[in-house]
Design goal:
It is a single chain. This protein has 272 residues and is an alpha/beta fold. The protein has a domain at 26-95 and 160-264: Purple Acid Phosphatase, chain A, domain 2 (4-Layer Sandwich), CATH 3.60.21.10. Helices cover 38% and strands 24% of the residues. It has a six-stranded mixed sheet. A hairpin with a 3-residue loop joins strand 7 (218-219) and strand 8 (223-227). The longest helix is centred in the N-terminal third of the chain and has 18 residues, at 36-53. It is globular, with a radius of gyration of 21 Å.
Length: 272
């Protein structure tokens, strides 16, 4: 009888927590959207954190949407390339990178791009507001291949669609919950929202994504959203993964003053 009661009240073993491979450390940075100031600050914070955290095989992943909306997309791209020279930095494609590249092909896509932050991107490559305002769409379409070199477009076109590390999948927007990872469509990985965000069941991997803005890091168990709306809120987020631990580093802009904060990660309860 005693043995039976012991079995009944014995604590169940804890479920295994998702983890990245042993000996690795991942810094996953959300949508930057042209906020070079916040990006510079988070680079410094990541470098300091990594130095203080001890030896590891360190990886940095940018979740896409480096461009548009914020004031210095060209600067963000240049800074990313510079960081890659001394650090293992991999970049995912976002829907705004896709719009950017496609705007060189069709005037109508350029028109759509301009309405969704593309104006700021083009200005960041050296066109003045006065010049921009004086141009027709047709004139701008003819100019941008000269303004933004092919090498820059090739670099953006090289961004990846998804990255897997241990129990985690990193992708810009999300995945189709009904489709195996190796059969995902690129359009979903760059653009999906409701079908992914509303899915409450388990997924093949815990998906770390951007694309959809949340007030704070949104950990739903099966996915973690880390786009905190840098261009709008002034808050850029990096999720730090090591073993089965999660931490958060954020840089924030308050009236032009950039601050850095760090915290142990806790699941968010708020919805966007």
């Amino acid at each position: 009888m005693l043995k039976s009661l012991t079995k009944i009240f014995a604590s169940k073993p804890k479920a295994r927590m998702p983890a990245v491979p042993d000996g690795t450390r991942y810094y996953v940075i959300g949508d930057i959207h042209g906020r070079l100031d916040l990006f510079e600050a988070i680079i410094d914070a990541v470098e300091q954190d990594d130095a203080a955290a001890g030896p590891a095989e360190t990886h940095v992943i940018l979740l896409g949407d480096l461009v548009d909306r914020g004031p210095d997309s060209a600067g963000v791209l240049a800074r990313t390339r510079e960081w890659q020279k001394r650090r293992n930095v991999r970049v995912l494609a976002g829907n705004h990178e896709e719009m950017f590249l496609e705007s060189f092909e069709k005037e109508e896509i350029l028109r759509h791009f301009l309405k969704h932050g593309g104006r700021e991107t083009i200005l960041s490559f050296g066109l003045t507001r006065k010049q921009f305002n004086a141009m027709t769409l047709e004139e701008l379409f003819a100019l941008i291949p000269q303004l933004i070199p092919q090498s820059e477009r090739d670099y953006i076109a090289s961004f990846e669609d998804m990255i897997v590390a241990g129990d985690y999948l990193f992708v810009h927007a999300g995945i189709d919950p009904k489709v195996p990872l190796d059969e995902q469509r690129r359009s979903d990985m760059l653009w999906i929202r409701d079908r992914f965000l509303n899915h409450e069941g388990p997924l093949e991997k815990v998906v770390v994504h951007g694309h959809t803005i949340f007030d704070k890091v949104m950990d739903c168990g099966n996915r973690i959203g880390i786009d905190t709306g840098a261009f709008r809120s002034g808050v850029l987020t990096a999720l730090v993964l090591e073993g089965d631990n999660k931490r958060v580093i954020q840089t924030s802009d308050t009236d032009g003053r950039i601050a850095v904060s760090t915290a142990e990660h806790e699941p968010a309860l708020t919805r966007a």
